[in-house]
Write a structure and sequence with these properties.
The protein has 149 residues and is of the alpha/beta class. It is built from 5 helices and 5 strands; from the N terminus they run H-H-E-E-E-H-E-H-E-H. The protein has helices at residues 3-36, 42-55, 96-108, 124-133, 140-148; strands at residues 59-63, 74-78, 81-88, 113-118, 135-138. It is elongated, with a radius of gyration of 21 Å.
């Protein structure tokens, strides 16, 4: 084997290792941003969710005022369908109350779809009520998949 062949092999190996390191760093950075949402205040999380919705194609994304929002934190539209979002940045599972809030708010704002977004997951009763009331539940896993798009 010639010395030139060895140099080329080493160079290719170095490039492959750099590419792997870059991919791992990107993956770690994405995961870090999602963990950062656990440290956000409620209103900061609402703006994070609004930015996430914009990035995946929602239009006319509007964060409602903090108090007196009738259970809706974000209003948006996608493909002619109007949405009302309730954002919950919690330390544990999200229960029925969030589902009830967005259910009422969806009708108050005359929206077609109600969604609860959270950095956590939902209790079984919340899932059952949401199914009955036709409310979408977007948990941590769903937000992670949105962030990766």
């Amino acid at each position: 084997m010639s010395e030139q062949t060895i140099y080329i092999g080493v160079a290719v190996l170095a490039l492959v290792l750099c590419a792997i390191a870059a991919l791992l760093a990107l993956r770690r950075a994405r995961r870090g941003r999602l963990c950062d949402m656990d440290l956000m205040e409620g209103h900061e999380f609402e703006h994070y969710c609004a930015d996430l919705l914009r990035r995946v194609g929602f239009l006319e994304v509007e964060v409602t005022r903090g108090s007196g929002d009738y259970g809706v934190d974000i209003l948006a539209e996608l493909g002619g369908v109007t949405y009302a979002f309730q954002c919950k940045r919690y330390d544990g599972p999200v229960g029925i109350k969030a589902v009830q809030e967005v259910y009422a708010g969806r009708d108050y704002y005359d929206r077609m779809v109600g969604v609860v977004m959270t950095n956590q997951y939902f209790t079984r009763p919340a899932v059952e009520v949401a199914r009955k009331l036709k409310i979408l539940l977007w948990d941590r896993g769903y937000l992670e998949s949105m962030a990766e798009e």
